[in-house]
Amino acid sequence: MINKSNYIEAAQQIIVLLGLPRSQQNERSALCLLALINLTPDRSWSEAENPLIGITPIMNWVKKHYGKEYAPNTRETIRRQTMHQFCDAGIAIYNPDKLDRPVNSPKAVYQIEPSTLSLLRTFGSSIWSEEIEKYLVDRETLIDRYAKEREQNLIPVEIATGSVMNLSPGEHNELIRSIIEDFAPRFAPGSVLVYVGDTGDKWGYCNMPLLTELGVKIDSHGKMPDVVFHYTSKNWLLLVESVTSHGPVDGKRHDELAKLFAGAKAGLVYITAFPNRAIMGRYLGEIAWETEVWVANAPSHLIHFNGERFLGPYSSPQ
Length: 318
What we know:
By secondary structure, the chain is an alpha+beta fold. It has helices at about 5-15, 25-35, 55-65, 75-90, 115-120, 130-135, 140-150, 170-185, 210-215, 250-260, 275-285; strands spanning about 90-95, 110, 155-160, 165, 190-200, 200-205, 225-230, 235-240, 265-275, 290-295, 300-305. A seven-stranded mixed sheet has the order 6-5-7-8-9-10-11, sandwiched between helices. A two-stranded antiparallel ribbon has the order 1-2.
């Protein structure tokens, strides 16, 4: 009878030897490593493979071959607490078939790094000790190389004069760059960037001292807008949602943002940004009244959804 626990324990041992932190030295990460190399319990380490595999397929593979079932809401834990560290350590490559694929793409995949695959195929053999020693000597160089390759696909955005942040690749963040570089100079000249979200990192950039000064106390569980500006000359906070595949500022989202920024000493202006009018057309029936709409491929125009003023805050109903 095949002892599946032997494979899991071996994978955990490998993770320890490769120098990953204690928080990755667990069964979850061991099973992910086995999935990355398609090592079912009936195969030897020398038969390890290198499929392209996403998070949900990893979970399905683990359930099928090792009988461990993870709840659907575990997906983010696997991505953030195992696969992210595998990539940082140079053990796995993220989207090797398309390095500029968006972070939140359902097509995102991982693949075992080639030299790591070669090493793992020697596990349990007479040359394992020698091979892992040679492998570890070259680790830093390899990690640096992959980090540079990933960095080449990031989206640079100027957040202040002479200060640049890099956003994860993807259509959503391209639109965020347009909001910062094209929308703000036209419709809120002299405004200060307060917050920028990133599909790869919720808190991509946040000027917390300014938010505090403006009376905003952020709940870490609250969903921030994609971009926030302080239009200093008018003392307005512009709350901008970047829409490429998810919804605009509709009635529900308007209420959520109003509650999140309820203590603000500045007027609140709600704005939905679209990359083009074709995408905007899909959401016309959902956009809340008394909000603004901006389209990136027609950057000098602003669409106002009714109300008594154009681009300005409204008092909350009593």
